[in-house]
Amino acid sequence: MPRERNQMVEERKIRRRRANGEESRRRILDAAVEVASERGYEGTSIAIVSARSGLPASSIYWHFKDKDELIAAVIERSFGTWLTAMDIPDGDGPFARIRAMTASVAKGLLESPDFLRLGLMLGLERRPEEPSARAMFLEVRDTAFRNLTTSVRELLPALDDAAIRLLVTYAMAGADGIFVAKEIGGDSIDIARLFDLHAHALFDLAARFVAGDLTP
Predict the structure, then answer these.
(1) 6-43 confidence digits (pLDDT tens)
(2) Helices (H), strands (E): how many in the chain?
(3) Which residues are CB-contacts of 37 (< 8 A; sequence separation ≥ 6)?
(4) Are 199 and 102 in contact (CB under 8 A)?
(5) Which of 2, 13, 89, 195 stands 20 to 30 A from 180 (CA)?
(6) 129-155, pLDDT tens digit by residue?
(7) What's the rounded Cα separation, in Å, for the pair 91 and 30?
(8) Which tens digit of pLDDT belongs to each residue from 161-199?
């Protein structure tokens, strides 16, 4: 019995340490998103993230090797939410499903804009030595592109591969542009309305590809 009791106590300690570690990691990542969104990649430092999270720098370095690894983890954590928003949901028809997808993207950007804001800042940077955070963003973006391509192929089987690739490229570029317009224009920009217009444009382009009025 004493041995079993000691084992139970030790297991509880391990679970408590794991839970504390997960909570610390969450706080660090939340703080890193805020700091990087305000200051950019260059302006972010472990010291500032430490102050914002209320955790010592040693705690941050326990979880992450350096700032670059920390920012890469921020992007990776946000990937699931972004990828879900890019999925085309079930619906009554192609147009309704495309509208539902663009509405989901708009909602995600309104609720959690920091991920794309940070990702686009990194994506536009060019350096002799590429940060792993930028590589992570480009990697997850490429995954989203492939997934959206698969969804469009299933939704619009009459389109050929070249038309699908062009349409998906346009869809993601348009979403980026709407997000940037919102960042610049603030509350004067109705992001939901713009994404609904984007859905109409995408469906119209798809129909014109099918009809042969446009060629990729």
Answers:
(1) 454 444 444 444 545 688 899 999 999 888 878 878 88
(2) 9, 0
(3) 114, 117, 118
(4) yes
(5) 89
(6) 767 888 888 888 898 899 889 989 988
(7) 35
(8) 999 999 999 999 999 999 999 888 888 999 999 999 999
The residue with greater pLDDT, 85 or 101, is: 101
State the chain's mean pLDDT as an integer: 83
Token digits of residue 139: 């990697």
In the chain, what are the domains? 1-64 (1.10.10.60), 66-216 (1.10.357.10)
Q: Which one, of 121, 1, 136, 139, lies nearest residue 74 by Cα?
A: 136
* Structure-block tokens of residue 6: 């000691």
Q: Are 27 and 63 in contact (CB under 8 A)?
A: no
DSSP state of 132: H
**Token representation of residue 187:** 């509350």
Q: How many CB atoms lie within 10 A of CB 100?
A: 16
The candidate with the shortest Cα–Cα distance to 109, out of 195, 198, 31, 169, is 195
Contact 53, 31 (CB under 8 A): yes
> Is the separation of the CB atoms in 46 and 60 below 8 Å?
yes
